[in-house]
Amino acid sequence: MPADVKFEIPLPLRLNEGWREAAERNLDWLARRHLISEGTAGLYNLFKSERLVGYTFPYASPHGLDMANRIVSVCTLLDDQFDGPAGRDPVSARAISASFERLLEDADGAEDGEAAGRSPLHQAFAEMWRDSCAGKSAAWRARASESWRRYFGSLVHESGNRRRGEFLPLDCYLEQRLVTGAMQQFTDACEVAGEFEVPWVAFNIPHVRIMRTLTADFVNLANDLASLEKELAAGETDNLVMVIRNERNCTLEEAIEHAYHFVAGKVERFVELREEVPEVVAALELPEEDVAVLYRYLDALAAWIVGYERWQRETFRYRKADAVDRATGAGYRLDDLLSVS
């Protein structure tokens, strides 16, 4: 099984020097918000998500690194809640998703707002969203909230797919996978962690939008390869390898090979487009400060590609999936974080 799958990526790998200190701060933040407990902290630490943040946000200040950790942790724990019954119950999935979607309306985040009296995860999400939006324009908030809304919708769609127990066509699966992995939020988080905002003209350059999609595709689909063994054991159908095997009517080994080359092609295209950007930008005659911010964003996307690939080969999230499942009885759902205490 390809848990140790390796991609050749011609992009520079860096690790934020402050990642260890940030990891301690994040574990403390998670514990104080009752998202991990004494019994689950060790299991959570197997995933090494803070090291992922160190690789994928190498440019971030200590504050930016803290924000990146909170975004990634909250989203990961939220996603893992759907390893439980809600992951196969579209009605429940829709209700849970709607309860979080409502929190996006209050970017200013009044302390006694929608999240008050809700679960620890709702409260942590509201805090994370409020802090993410601090200093950002209304346009950025609208873009980032749409990323979250698409993600919440995808959780319902995935639940419905599990209920059906059938394979999606490849093109439909790829459209769904673009958002189920939360990479739209994580590429928005580049601007939060880096404490900048890409001007709208620069952000909407076709090359840039495609590179953002390629980044998400690579991470999500490389994840499909790494998590294949876990998902086969769980009877999942939403995985690139299994979708290809079903569509091509080929062996598992052939499907893995097809999937590998498909995913590697995302990196190749990203690099090609990156080389064309200077000419495109020059023709637009953008202000120097806009160009500088744009290149910071493109470097941040590249850091996600190369950083995720390295982390995926280091984490125990996939190699120890069976141990986590035995310990929790519900996949990666370490605790029920949606109940009000």
TrEMBL record:
EC number annotated for this UniProt entry: 4.2.3.-
One Pfam family it belongs to:
Terpene_syn_C_2
Required co-factor?
A: Mg(2+)
Q: Which domain of life is it from?
A: Bacteria
Q: Per UniProt, what is one GO molecular function of this protein?
A: metal ion binding
Q: How would you classify this enzyme at the top EC level?
A: lyase
Name the coiled-coil region(s).
Answer: 211-238
Assigned keywords, A-Z: Coiled coil, Lyase, Magnesium, Metal-binding
Q: Which family does it belong to?
A: Belongs to the terpene synthase family.
Q: What is this protein called?
A: Terpene synthase
Q: Which organism is it from?
A: Thermocatellispora tengchongensis
